[in-house]
Amino acid sequence: VLTRSGYPYTGCAIRRTTDGGVNWETQFVASDTALLACHFLDAMNGWVGGGWSECDECPYYNVLLHTTDGGATWQPQTFGEVDEERAVLDVAFADLQYGWALREDGVFVTSDGGINWYPQETPATQRLYALAVNEPHSVWAVGGNGAILHWEGTNSAEPPRTLLPQQFAFTAFPNPFNPTTTLEFSLPTSGLVQMKVYDVTGRLATTLTNRFFPQGQHHITFDGSSLPSGIYFARLQGNSFGKTQKLVLLK
Q1: Nearest to residue 88, comparing CAs of 109, 105, 103?
Q2: If DSSP codes are grouped into helix, strand and coil, which group holds residue 33?
């Protein structure tokens, strides 16, 4: 069960009972994450979804966690473009491999236990809020204005596979730039990533990001319109990697 206090859902926690709800033990607390969905296949395997935000007024980035030991430990799973501002609203699995998840921007499916997720087209023009799966290829979704969707399919065609990066990379294009450049980076593993920009004196010019990113390729736009022309250094730092990219701002 998920419990939460405040708005928007600050102080979220995952609690577990083994006696039919008479007593509950706290297994996981997330002070800056809105946990919105919880689904367990059995006593050991479960998923929770929600969103992560830097502040009350900030957008929510999607979060999906998976446990294989009854909630004692939780591991993040790659979920589409996590750097997009879309929280996970609901998640449901038919078995240990095949599952569906509902994000603010649509429905996603996995056939490998949540390692890879793929967007699914739906005819709904209304926002969807909840879903239920009763077998691997049958899912129901409900949304605004009384919308009810049902999808049935076969396993004759696997969703397209995407190649995930096997090594770390960090580039900027264009460079030199005026006034914006795109900082692209590839992560071989998921984790917390921090990116800051410094001037030639070592003074911090701006912090571009400081949050969790999944394995994969990502990009962040750096806008130097408020800075003078000159040389800057973008520093990308993770748990087991770090690299500095020289930037030239020409106005």
Answers
A1: 103
A2: strand
